[in-house]
Amino acid sequence: MSLTYATLGTEKKDYTEDDYYSIPENIRAELIKGKIYYLAAPSRIHQEVLSFLHATIYAYIKEKRGTCKVYPAPFAVKLFNDRKTIVEPDISVICDPGKLTDKGCSGAPDWIIEIISPGNPGNDYVRKLNLYADAGVREYWIADPSGKTVSVYNLASGTFRAVEYSFEDEIKVMIYEDLSITLREFAKNSQG
Q1: Using the 8-state DSSP alphabet, how is residue 191 labeled?
Q2: What's the whole-model pTM score?
Q3: C-beta of residue 49 within 8 angstroms of C-beta of residue 183
Q4: Which residues of the chain have pLDDT under 50?
Q5: CA 144 to CA 148: how far, in whole Å?
Q6: Per-residue pLDDT reduced to its tens digit, 81-129
Q7: DSSP sequence for 94-155
Q8: Sign of CA dihedral 159, 32, 115, 126
Q9: What separation, in Å, do the N-terminal and C-terminal C-alpha atoms of the chain show?
């Protein structure tokens, strides 16, 4: 998720998915390139934006009788086969049912949305952007409730240049021909 990170410790050990799955379920963490990062609890507005986006995408898929699945965090996404990177995006949309496992997703989702928290936006704008591009994620959104903006990356095109939108704008979803989303209801009263 896009929250404040703290490393598991100062040891130099490389952790694997076995270590990740041994973390108690009530502790939220991610495994990135062999390092475990704890996740702080999200804010209320973070959860409201997440709930709204999840419900909107879910309703669209259901209405269209689509085969894609949408999952809100916590939902484990094993990006690579190296057993050293498992993330929990705020929202994951997976269109290949062969990637779904009992533990989550094995491989790149088609679309990931992260909702940043004020404490550490660099995780989403740099670390995760690069991870998701390397893994083959097609579309990546970064929603910023404090700035009331959404950065949209078309990673399938191979470019790292974001198209910036405000919460007032209609944002065209690239992986679907006829879905646009606005976060207008959060534009006036949101607190990051």
Answers
A1: -
A2: 0.90
A3: yes
A4: 1-10, 190-192
A5: 6
A6: 988 999 999 999 999 999 999 999 999 999 999 999 776 666 778 789 9
A7: E--GGGEETTEEES--SEEEEE--TT-THIIIIIHHHHHHHHT-SEEEEEETTTTEEEEEEG
A8: negative
A9: 15
